[in-house]
Amino acid sequence: MTTISLIAAVLLLLTCRNEMPAVPEEPELPIGTTPIPASPQRTGDPQAGYDYLVAGNYIRSGIPYSVFVNTFGKDTKNELGRSGDNAEINYEFTAVDAPNGVRVVAPNCLQCHAQYLNGQLVVGLGNSTYDFTTDQSQNAALLETVIKAFYGSTSPQWEAAKNFTRAVKATGPYLITKVRGVNPADKLAAVLAAHRDVSDLSWYDESQMSLPAEVVPSDVPAWWLLKKKNAMFYNAAGRKDFARFMMASNLLTVSDSTEARDVDNHFNDVLAYILTLQPPAYPGALDQAQVEKGRVIFKENCESCHGTYGAEAAYPNLLVSLDRVGTDPQLAQANFAYPEFVDWYNRSWFSKNPNAARLEPGEGYIAPPLDGIWATAPYLHNGSVPTLEDLLNSTARPKYWKRSFDTSDYDQTKAGWNYSVETSGGSTSVYDTTLPGYGNQGHTFGDFLNDTDRAALIEYLKSL
User: Fold this and answer.
1) What is the spatial distance between Cα 385 and Cα 173, in angstroms, rounded to a whole number?
2) Spatial CB neighbours of 175, under 8 Å, sequence gap ≥ 6
C-alpha cells in the first residue's frame, strides 16, 4: 500500500468514526455506591393477584373460625371488598379451609403491609403501628387451651390449628421488639427456616440453626416502591425471583414443598398486583413556588442516589456502603445476612428452578425511591426518625421520642408524626435511639441546608 493510500485509508476511518453516533458516557456513580443489577421477573394477572392476596390460602392453618368469631366478633367494614366469611372479619385476616376441611382464620400479608392513614386503609403502606413488644407464643398456648376445652386434642379443629400454633410457639420468643412501631419480620424468616428441612420444607420441632438472640428492628417499606427496585430488602439481599421471596410467608404453616409449589403458582399474580400500586397523593395544599425551589435543591443534592421523578423518572438502584450512609449498621449485618440462614436459603427449595430466588446480602443499604415518602413516616430503615425535617437535619433528631400512634396525628410542616421529646427510654411506647439496632445516626446529607432551603425541599418531597 502506498503512503497516499495509507493516509486515505486513515482519513476514511476517521471520517467514518466521526459519523458514528456518539456513545453516551455512563454517569459517574456517587461515592460509596454500587449498582444493583436487574433480574427478570414473572408476569401475572393483577386482579387474580389481589384476590389471592386478600382471600387466598397461602397460610392454611389458623384459628378455628368459630373460635375467632366468638372471641373477636365480626367486622363489617369490609374495606377490601371481600365476600362470604371474609366480608365479616378484619382485613388483617383471611378465612380459608384447612387441608382437613375445617374453616380457619389465618393472618395475611396485610398485617404488615397495610395501614390506616387519615382514616383510609392504604394497602401497600408498611404498618408502623403494630406492637411486637410481647411474646406471641403465650397467645398460641392460650389458643391451644381453648381448642382443647371446646373440641378436644384429637379433634379436626386441633389438627387444623396445629401448624399455626406450633409456628407461633417456636417463633414468638425470638420476635420481641424493644419498642412499638418496628417490625421483626426479617428475623421471623430466619427462625422459621431454622425449623424447616432444606429440601422439602417439612417441620423440625427443634431448631436446626444457632441464631443470634437479638431482634434487629426494621420499618416496613411501602410496596409501591418495588416496581423500581432490582433487589428486595434493605441490604439488597433479595435477588432474582421476587414472587418466590414474597410467598415465603407460607413458611409459617406450610406442610411441605408440594404445598409451597401450589402457593408459588399464585404469587406471580400477587407480584403483578403489587406492581400496579401507586402512592397516595399528599392530602394538603402545596406551595408550588416552594415545590419548584425544592426540585432544584433535590436535583443538585439528592437525585444521584434517589433518582428522578415526573415525566422523565429514572431510578439508579444503588447500594450505599455503611461507611458512606453512616446509619445504624445492625440490620445490614443481621437476619438476611446470617451466614447459616443465607446458606440454608441458597440450598433450599426456594433457590431451585424454575423461578429461583437467592440471598446475596450487601454491605450497606439501598437508597430507596421516594415516591409517596410523605406517607411513610417514620424514616430510616429502623423507623428511628419521626419526620422528614428531622431526617434532613440530624442535629434535631430526638434521642427519645413518643408518638400517639393515631394515624391522623400528622405534622404537615415537618412531614411526619407529631411527637413529644422524652427524657429517657425504658417504655415500649418511647422510641429509644440508644438501643442497639435502633440508632438514628447517619444520612447527614441535609445538614448543610438552611431552614428556608430545607423547608422547600420538604415541600418538593411531599409532591412525589
Assistant:
1) 27
2) 132, 136, 184, 187, 188, 191, 215
pLDDT, tens only, 280-297: 999 999 999 999 999 999
Q: Is the pLDDT of residue 196 over 50?
A: yes
Altogether, the residues listed in the chain come to a count of 464
**Exposure class string for 445-462: b at 16+ Cβ within 10 A, else e:** bbeebeeebbbbbbbbbb
User: What residues does each domain of the chain span?
Assistant: 288-317+367-462
In this structure, which amino acid lies at residue 368? P
**Angle CA(185)–CA(39)–CA(261) in degrees, nearest 5?**
60
Tell me which residue has cell 382443647: 148
In contact, 364 and 320? CB cutoff 8 Å: yes
Q: What is the rounded CA–CA span in Å between residue 145 and residue 160?
A: 14
> CA–CA separation, 10 vs 367, rounded Å?
47
Q: Give tens-digit pLDDT for 339-369.
A: 999 999 999 999 999 999 999 998 999 999 9
Report which of 339, 244, 309, 298 is spatially closest to residue 40, judged by C-alpha positions.
Answer: 244
Can you give the pLDDT at residue 338? Answer: 87
Torsion of the alpha carbons at 206, 207, 210 and 212, rounded to the nearest 10: -110
- State the Cα–Cα distance between residues 411 and 388, nearest whole angstrom: 10
User: Would you call the peptide bond into 354 cis, given omega within 30 degrees of 0 as the criterion?
Assistant: yes
Cα distance between residue 151 and residue 143, in whole Å: 12
Q: Strand 318-321 to strand 410-411: parallel, antiparallel, or no bridges (unpaired)?
A: unpaired
Identify whether 329 is preceded by a cis peptide bond (ω within 30 of 0): no
d(CA 393, CA 387) in angstroms, rounded, equals: 10
Give the residue carrying C-alpha cell 414472587: 243
* Residue 379 DSSP one-character state: B
Q: Identity (one letter) of the amino acid at 105?
A: V
Residue 143 to residue 93: CA distance in whole angstroms: 16
The beta-strand segments (E) located in 62-146 are 63-64, 93-97, 103-107, 114-117, 120-123
Q: 185-194 vs 339-347: helix axis angle to the nearest 10?
A: 70
| Whether 57 contacts 96, CB under 8 Å | yes
Q: Which three cell numbers stand for residue 73?
A: 366478633
Contact indicator for 437, 179 with CB cutoff of 8 Å: no
